[in-house]
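The instructor's notes for this session suggest beginning with a concrete chain rather than abstract definitions. Hand out the sequence below and ask the class to guess, before any prediction is shown, which regions might be ordered.
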Amino acid sequence: MSVGEVLSGHDYFDEEFGVSVSKLLGMLRRSFAMDMAFIGKFENGSRTMVFVESDNNISARSQSFCFSHPESQTYCRKIADGELPSIIPDTQSNEITRLMKVTDELSIGAYLGVPIYLSDGEIYGTLCCIKYSSDPSLETRDPSLLTFVADVIADRVEFHRNIQEHDNQIRDRIERLSLSNELTMHFQPIWSVTDSAICGYEALARFNTEPYRSPDVWFKEASQVGLGDFLESLAITRALSQLPKIPEFCFLSINASPDAILSGAVGELLNRQDAHRVILEVTTKAEFDVLKELKIDKVQGYFIGKPAELA
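After discussion, reveal the predicted structure:
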């Protein structure tokens, strides 16, 4: 078993879901006059409390309170397996629960619990309530409310799991780019009307994947999953690797988002080499004034410009 602080559930649920779970558990606990309600998740052979709700969390936060137990030694597992009923008014009167170590460890006098089933039949865990004293009035209570709340939670668990799987797929695709030739840089000539000659080249990222997805989609998804700087840095690194091949009298224009510039990711790459011929084209025009206010329109010899200034 392990000892820790109350788990907020945010490692398992999105923040918006966290608020709704708190309300659901509070409503359920008060409806049955219980001291604590929680979601128990089955994973890696353990039952872990991933969301705990009570009027007074002092006992739950104490160093003696255990949040994770071997799955086989919990009420949750035995309820899921049908060894225990959903409602136990007096744990000392039940021949199974009165002998279980967890009964004393969590001071369980009465208990409510129902499995949380996902749509494919998987048991995610259980929805449970604890009362520190026995409660004979629970004998007449209908567990259907518990089951209803468990179904709502199961729906949200699957919704969030699908989002996580989608985001993980995006992360995998983006991280694979660094090991493949799917991301290439194309260099578009920039013509000087004054000199009637090529004065520079704009580096443009192209993704050679099947099915084809445009660069804006790649960079948008990368930003959504926290890999925006990673993808931009990868593209800029590949663009800068071609700088020696560009004529000395030409500049190289590189696209960069304000976030990547302000985070220092872009500056770190450019400061590694002589970048006096590099112009950063800020991809979000509305943010340009912010960059000017931060006085980083010229840093270490490279310049920040917005598209109109490069024409």
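Then share the key points. The domain at 179-310 is CATH 3.20.20.450 (TIM Barrel). The chain has a mean pLDDT of 82.
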